[in-house]
Structure to design on (1526 residues):
């Protein structure tokens, strides 16, 4: 039982933080946001730091790191409300590394690690809401390969990605496929999201697809759980910076001749936010450290973590805006973009009520971290 | 004690309903029912229709050309307008400055300004808040120096709602720095076309342009535009605030929006999900309780006894409910609240939606509604006021 | 639309308040509590004030008043945390007046009005929780009358009552009966309740019963709705006095050299409590004014009201204790007994989650007071 | 970073578990698992069993006869004891006064007092709070005047937990009125059998006798019972408060009680009711999150770096969780939480229960738990402290 970061992990954190502070300034970020919400050169800078290869095994050109390193990195990207979806890359590379046949690994993992290829999971369907077992896309064998048809929604940076991991029903069972964006029959429609990042609707019409794994539901659950752990870590980073901004503002802004930090009612609100911050951090640790647990335990842990993060992100986000007053609802102020990011993170990979349902359903007689 | 409205009130309601339904332009109602962006023209069109009927100043007494309605009648009008999908009346002219002009303006000022407000022709803005003032309004710094028959105004206002359309602005300005901050404030009407007035947009976190900064750089204002006496502006502004304010709770809009929430929940498949449905149920009880609170205030006003000192509660609960329904609408959309396509929030958008057209504005509305617990006296200030009534 | 009380209603309120202030002091109340939780002579004083006959028509010796008068009275009894269950009497007399055959009315209503007979509803069964349609008690015709068997729980002042209104299944359908306590086959076991009042388990074994109405479920729903309206009104009275006590304490008790009322965080808590107080009062009005509405509308209104009251009573009760600090959790202090009463009132006639379920289930497209 | 305990820690846990399960009297565990009333004898019996094993002072260093456990080992011991149904150790002797005697007492005092504490023979009470002091502890007024080799003590303490059993009491007393209130306070050990000491019960709202008022009327206390220096008592008391306090969160007990809640919910038929079950689910997440918070503190202590300054959070969340599970247990019983039969809350009650035996103490426990957000520094005071760490 040890929650200290190793020296290597601290170095990794420092490196990412430095990049955010120096290279991913708020001005640059807002420029990217206005230009559509995704910047390939910024993504390539993440690749240069090795981050796109974080989950890629070393023999495929990556860093072969684990969930704790991913957590450290995502926290820092959260602090900088970085738009480029590194989490999506970790999800995809994690699934490919764990489930794909060797040939596919050799073909894609090095390119993912180098940043040459952006591969993202395209799983959301209109009727599914947050359920993973609802899938209308289908795949049929065609010669030595597959043809895939269907529509996937809300694909992160979907019109910028090079390939998609796509769950589709093959012979009545969900399997996972890889489809290249340039393949015939693939069309995308990109748009900005509420947190100023980018997503797309993706249509597949008899598009050439490669089978990643026939056990698609297990792979998809795993992918989403990696996504949850990433989202929790990112959320913690966003919360941390939100808390700093809010504390700073409260110690500066004066009303009735004194700083806001003078008012006990506001101080207590900050104490409640601090509570959520630390509960969120605790559950983010928990999520990352349970990512390699047996499936049932992992699913239960991720639901608990995402539920807690959902509660915390909403509480901290809303109250940070409130404590700021008018300035907190302006586009000009950096803090309002943290609020939007917190709102968005609650809605991905299952929202708070969804995960409450999961926790409720998966409840057992004994409870606790080790149960 | 009786919950029902009187037959006369019922009949009044039906007349108002019939008129509103017959005269509210369909395209405007459609936008309101779907939270689409309202243009200046939309707002102005409805204001003029009301103005023609004599109902834009629906709270005005007969002597100034208003309908002379009772508090209950005003409430019924507001409810019928809200449920029919009418835009909220832009309050700065008819609801805010007009009562001050009626109470403290000279006959000349009344004759000059009230007709344009009553007809909806002249767009007014409110110049109260300043960058440094916030909840501490009396700390305002915008100066007005008297020079002969003019005031020279210098300073800055902020959070000025829809000032980009404003033709006139009523301002609190500092005319003296002696005594308590409250005592050196005057109430001035300023033509926004005057040289030296600059309006700079503030873009909100939802991307919308709703508020502005207004700068005054040696703006010359004729002394005849001063309301009442110099240095008494704070009193006039307070009179305005103490005005009957059940509308602050906006319960009628909440009822309309609750219906919209149910529609969205149904189409997104969560209306039958007990977990989500319970959240709607809680909100519904909140809205009924708020409506009862409003009715109690109206009843007290009607009978003229036991005035209920609960304006703070109305503001707090009303704003929390506004935030909650916008939050639940967003959560009903779930992942489909993520797309943020500004053009899709306009009526007449021809492009593709993501998910469904109804979902397009939900995140923006949620973001926008964060303002409701901040403006008009933040909910923290309201809690101070409420506590005062309980604890002294 | 008028929420003013008539002069007669105000006089009624004054009369009850005077009785509470002068005759039902905290000392007397605690004496009754220690002696078991019910005092017949105190109950008779309520009868002398005419209150037991509030719902009894004038031609049966009562006052023939309506829900608003009942509300006024219960608010005042709530202010005094009066132990004797006048609400139970209103429930029973209301049901008898509305559903019983004339002979039964003539026999019982005058005695209820005079206080000679205490009649209470005995409906709770172990397996029912808050559901009214779960009923294991049975009644069978025996000659010109009925024999009733079954067990009813938590009957208010059940070992002191003279007769019970008992729902039981007759020919497979719930009917409502009247059973006298002295009838053969009736046994009671009394005990104190958490609010220091009195209740009893009541067993019926082939006890002689008189049919009140064959439409037992409708009568029972009506009875419970009368009970809900009474409970809401009583709750408002308890809340009102709790708020006064708390404000008084906060303006007296000093910490760090100043009164508690000086601390903004505590002031804001009081503001939140005031909110609940006024929402509770509003919904209590609503409940009483909807008591004669059509059934579906009435059921929906009562669920809404009891839900809101449940929320308010818990919030005000818990926070009042908290604002008092140590003194608030002592038996000696009057305020702690108000907290216990608020807790108990939440649990009768359906608790908060139960009524949330009712509201949720009965929800319609349009909302609002008049919907 | 690693969630798992080390193999050594695991082995330690298993040893402790085996010993606790073998040595904890079944009748006591039964009472704890069912929230039945614990007598003085129950508490003392378990204390002596622990004392004999050398584990009553489980937090003590070896030099004073303690086991010298690490923070993690202490946590594991607490967890195993709690889950097995052991009563909480009455803390006033082994956890509260002993560390002060060890740190600031003379060798003579250590020799005289520590053995009786370690063995569980001597029952200690804590004399801090006074009627006027509350959260403002330093305002205490109980005077101790030095007369030769004695102090004469006059005043009153209150909220003195289980003082009806107390043999000794450690008190903060005022020995000087000069300077700041904190600087005139001394730390005194008082034999409760001394003439002039009177204990008066305070009955709590649940009807239980758990706390007392303690009056001092010209009580003579030998000067040798003063800990450390005169007027430095505040420092010593603060040292005690700053002590490692993850136990304040009581997360292990919460885990045990969550299991009890689930049992009750199941037997009352609400475990499968989604609406109620969701409330349990939320509590479960809260408890896991709190446990993670505790583990983070332990990890920081173990590594000796980055000490986490979150004792306030542990107290707030821990106490809220205690209140919440007691509330949910009561709500699980629903109407059957209403009967309040004190005898039925005792083990060995022979009468009839209403509903079920498990339900008898639920309301009393709920009432009793209201204290947790008040005592040990109210949660409002804790929020002040937490805010200080964020805002300065």
């Amino acid at each position: 039982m040890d929650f200290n970061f190793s020296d290597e992990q601290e170095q990794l954190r420092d490196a990412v933080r430095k990049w955010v502070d120096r290279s991913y300034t708020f001005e640059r970020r807002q420029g990217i946001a206005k230009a559509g919400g995704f910047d390939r050169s910024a993504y390539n800078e993440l690749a240069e730091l090795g981050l796109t290869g974080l989950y890629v095994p070393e023999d495929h050109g990556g860093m072969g790191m684990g969930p704790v390193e991913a957590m450290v990195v995502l926290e820092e990207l959260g602090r900088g409300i970085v738009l480029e979806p590194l989490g999506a890359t970790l999800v995809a590379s994690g699934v490919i590394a764990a489930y794909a046949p060797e040939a596919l690994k050799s073909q894609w993992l090095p390119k993912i690690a180098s940043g040459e290829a952006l591969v993202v999971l395209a799983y959301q369907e209109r009727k599914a809401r947050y359920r993973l077992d609802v899938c209308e896309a289908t795949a049929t064998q065609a010669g030595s390969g597959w043809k895939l048809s269907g529509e996937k929604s809300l694909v992160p940076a979907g019109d910028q990605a090079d390939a998609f991991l796509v769950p589709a029903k093959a012979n009545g069972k969900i399997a996972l496929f890889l489809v290249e964006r340039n393949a015939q029959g693939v069309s995308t429609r990109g748009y900005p999201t509420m947190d100023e990042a980018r997503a797309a609707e993706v249509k597949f019409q008899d598009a050439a697809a490669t089978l990643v794994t026939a056990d698609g539901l297990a792979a998809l659950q795993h992918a989403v759980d990696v996504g949850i752990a990433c989202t929790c870590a990112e959320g913690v980073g966003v919360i941390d910076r939100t808390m700093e901004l809010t504390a700073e503002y409260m110690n500066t802004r004066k009303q009735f001749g004194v700083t806001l930090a003078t008012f006990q009612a506001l101080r207590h609100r900050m104490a409640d936010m601090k509570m959520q911050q630390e509960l969120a951090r605790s559950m983010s640790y928990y999520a990352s450290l349970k990512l390699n647990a047996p499936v049932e335990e992992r699913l239960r842990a991720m639901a608990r973590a995402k539920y807690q993060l959902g509660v915390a992100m909403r509480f901290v986000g809303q109250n940070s805006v409130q404590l700021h007053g008018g300035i907190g609802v302006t586009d000009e102020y950096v803090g309002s973009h943290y609020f939007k990011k917190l709102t968005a993170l609650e809605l991905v990979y299952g929202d708070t009520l969804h995960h409450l349902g999961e926790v409720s359903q998966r409840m057992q007689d004994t409870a606790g971290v080790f149960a | 004690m009786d919950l029902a409205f009187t037959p006369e009130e019922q009949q009044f309601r039906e007349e108002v309903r019939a008129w509103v339904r017959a005269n509210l332009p369909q395209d405007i109602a459609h936008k309101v029912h779907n939270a689409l962006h309202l243009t200046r023209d939309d707002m102005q069109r409805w204001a003029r229709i009301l103005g023609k009927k004599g109902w834009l100043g629906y709270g005005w007494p007969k002597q100034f050309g208003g309908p002379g309605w009772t508090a209950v009648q005003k409430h019924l009008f507001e409810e019928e307008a809200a449920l029919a999908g009418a835009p909220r009346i832009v309050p700065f002219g008819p609801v805010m400055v007009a009562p001050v002009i009626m109470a403290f303006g000279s006959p000349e000022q009344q004759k000059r300004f009230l007709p344009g407000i009553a007809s909806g022709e002249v767009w007014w803005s409110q110049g109260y808040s300043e960058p440094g003032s916030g909840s501490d309004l009396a700390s305002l710094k915008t100066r007005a120096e008297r020079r002969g028959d003019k005031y020279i105004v210098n300073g800055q206002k902020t959070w000025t709602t829809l000032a980009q359309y404003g033709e006139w602005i009523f301002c609190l300005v500092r005319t003296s720095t002696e005594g308590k901050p409250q005592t050196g404030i005057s109430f001035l009407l300023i033509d926004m076309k005057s040289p030296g007035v600059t309006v700079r947009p503030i873009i909100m976190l939802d991307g919308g342009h709703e508020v502005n900064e207004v700068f005054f750089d040696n703006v010359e204002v004729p002394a005849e535009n001063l309301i009442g006496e110099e240095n008494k502006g704070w009193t006039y502004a307070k009179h305005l605030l103490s005005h009957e304010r059940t509308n602050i709770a906006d319960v009628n809009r909440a009822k309309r929006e609750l219906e919209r929430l149910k529609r969205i929940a149904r189409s997104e498949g969560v209306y039958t999900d007990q977990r989500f449905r319970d959240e709607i149920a809680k909100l519904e009880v909140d809205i009924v309780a708020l409506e009862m609170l409003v009715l109690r205030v109206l009843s007290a006003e009607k009978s003229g006894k036991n005035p209920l000192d609960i304006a703070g509660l109305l503001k707090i609960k009303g704003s929390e409910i506004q935030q909650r329904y916008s939050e639940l609408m967003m959560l009903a959309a779930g992942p489909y609240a993520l797309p943020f396509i500004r053009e899709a929030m306009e009526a007449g958008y021809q492009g593709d939606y993501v998910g469904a057209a109804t979902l397009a504005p939900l995140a923006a509305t949620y973001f926008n509604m964060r303002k409701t617990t901040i403006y008009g006296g933040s909910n923290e200030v309201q809690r101070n006021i409420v506590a005062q009534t309980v604890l002294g």
About this structure: Chain A has a mean pLDDT of 97. The first helix of chain A runs from residue 7 to 23. The two ends of chain A are 15 Å apart (CA to CA).
